[in-house]
Amino acid sequence: MDLTTDEQAMLDGAHGRATQKAMQILVALGTIYRAPRLIPVTSVQIAGVSYDNLGEAGLQFLAEMADGGGQVRVKATLNPAGMDIENWPALGIPPDFAEKQMLVIDAFARMGVETTCTCTPYLIGNLPAYGDHIAWSESSAVCYANAVLGARSNREGGPSALAAALTGRTPEYGLHLEENRCPGLTVNVTARLQENTDFGALGKAIGEKIQATKIIPYITGIDSASLEQLKSFCASLATYGGAALFHIPRLTPEASLYQPPAESLTITQANLDDANRSLSDATEAEVDFVSLGCPHLTLAEIARIAALLDGKQVTREFWVTTARPIKQIADRLGYTQIITAAGAKIAADTCCVVAPIAGRFTALAADSAKACYYASGKNNFKTLFLPFEDVVRLAIQERD
Ligand code: F3S
Hints:
The protein is of the alpha/beta class. Helices cover 41% and strands 14% of the residues. It is built from 14 helices and 14 strands. The longest helix has 17 residues, at 51-67. The site of FE3-S4 cluster has 16 residues, from helix 13.
């Protein structure tokens, strides 16, 4: 790989141990993927924040990078942590876990990372522009950034995203290159799409078809989609298909650069119904945990929950997960008060997947196809996949 004088100096250790280690990670990655050089990035989003996923080895790596003088060179935010950093006892997080989680957050803070823990960084000011090269690692956010914003990111691992933050660089390969952003398959959607869950089910249906080839879909038949529906779709397509980019004519900014590919498939109403059904194996009576906010909720979604919960009481553990800055606005607008008065919990900084809750519940109800995937695969919960408002209704329904 060709390195600039400054990059070579980082690699030689002139900027300290942590920057050197970061540059070694990027050069190794670039060599594997035959990148000719490094390119500057404008934004970083780092996954691998929950102590539940990191464990002691991960914590030690981060502490060493912070002790080694690592300092970010570009804007960098974090993915959700394993708990609400300010209100973890309310979520039933064990104190020994909280102590370790705070050491993780502290290591990132010492390196100058903004310790805002969210998978929707684009809602809270980490918002790249069209064409920006970035290094993000949360899969749903990478898909959103590439497809909806037209920024350019590979799906980074936690260490390579941190390395990008500490050097301001990433290897030039994959989705940073124009030629790798072309669609290879036209997906004609004839199914009706209304709820977030329809977009989640669509992501699963398409994802399972492209999983093996990682071909970029060019999706027709979708005339409109809200921000919330697109974030739901991105999370699902990334989870079930490993996808980091798609194009939808008139909805995503790069679609107009391409013609629909000749190879095609159709997603019918029957396909969507199958995907929808396949995400549930629990009955309503079995559900003892309810969560909305995968990916993290927008303020509008929190307002909807508050309106539905106003004056009611929940009968099951209910987590409303979002980014801390969104919660702070919800506090000011009175939504938090209504939601907590109903017995539900606003869980900022975290989510129902990365929190250490294995063994605590039997069945999760959610409107997120991604949350269902991990509830079952990571935590061994049964799942009930329901539209947004039905999830809230179930949360307040009397239990048998
Ligand atoms: Fe975000 Fe957690 Fe879902 S990180 S996309 S809320 S699994």
